[in-house]
Amino acid sequence: MRYDVIIAGGSYAGMSAALQLARARRKVLVIDAGQRRNRFAASSHGFLGQDGRAPGDIAEDARRQLMAYPTVEWVSGTVINASKVADGFTLATSDGQCFDARRLLLATGVIDELPDVEGLAQRWGKSVFHCPYCHGYELEQGPIGVLATSEMSLHHALMLPDWGPTTFFTRGVFEPDPEQRASLERRGVTMVPEHVERIEGDRADVVLANGRVVSIEGLFVLPRTRVASPLAESLGCEFEDGPMGAFIQSDMTRETSVPGVFVCGDAAMPFGSVALSVGDGVRAGSGVHRSLIFGGIESRAGSFPY
Ligand code: FAD
Ligand code: MG
Fold first, then answer.
1. Are 7 and 287 in contact (CB under 8 A)?
2. Can you give the residue ranges of every domain in the chain?
């Protein structure tokens, strides 16, 4: 069985792309390892029409609607290898299955590399977050912390006072210059330079090296991110540097530097969200479809949406 496209990653971006292709009656295989980035959070926010729903419920509704289309198939598994063959790609999964397709779409998302602070990982998505738009409102303007991970954390610390009184734990990772210090003071941010020993308690009690405990409702960190699978690298796709980590470079149709390989969602942009991933899947799905019809050169020449 040869598919028109295999989509590696069946979360918001991959399913959104699959939906466009299914509606064009194309043969689509989605292979998904079931590790959505937001699986640690109880609710998802900021996606119009879905605000406050459980991330898994949004995905489950999407999957039910998608699988009603007869040309879509789904395999639960991890793609471990993809290689170029004449006029397409052949993929292998970790349980030894092989599949062929004319196009390949990478929608694998990214992995968050959390700073190594005791008590932080188990609170990820519960009282430790990266995105204030996603989880800031629910903190009800209670005390907020920002844990410095890089220079970028300055922006986080300057933003968060809109969500609650903010303490910036710089912990030797970030040293504000006088101008930055003045900006932080104007925003009412409290700076704490001490080393952070651990996070404990029901929400996020930040225990400092000197024994002091700062109790906060929500702690914000900017983790490094990396694309969730080595497939793009092994295929030779170019990457771009984003402020939080590298993402896969692509053009307006979401085709990567390797002809026939497309990308969408968090793996394709510097910062992602559910809504952006769904929108990006639409772009990539129609990009894949046009490349199936027009081939490489013509599809790149025409940037029309339909
Ligand atoms: P993902 O949702 O990460 O899905 C990628 C899929 O690909 C996974 O199922 C994975 O298992 C699969 N996969 C990876 N590699 C392979 C492979 N080799 N073979 C097969 N399958 C593979 N965004 C919001 O808009 N609102 C929120 O409230 C919000 N809250 C968040 C809370 C937390 C704690 C985190 C970490 C993120 C949150 N986000 C939120 C961001 C959101 O989760 C992502 O932007 C979104 O999930 C990206 O969608 P995606 O489809 O690109 O990737
Ligand atoms: Mg079906």
1. no
2. 2-112+224-301, 115-221
Does 32 contact ligand 1 (Cβ within 6 A)? yes
Taking only the tens place, the pLDDT of each residue in 39-62 is 999 999 999 999 999 999 999 999
Query: Of all atoms in ligand 1, which is nearest to the CA of residue 274?
Result: 25
- Ligand 1 site, residue 83, Cβ cutoff 6 A: no
pTM (global) more than 0.85: yes
Domain 115-221 has CATH 3.50.50.60: yes
Within this chain, domains 2-112+224-301 and 115-221 share the same CATH topology: yes
CATH class of 2-112+224-301: alpha beta
CA of 285 to the centre of ligand 2 (A): 17
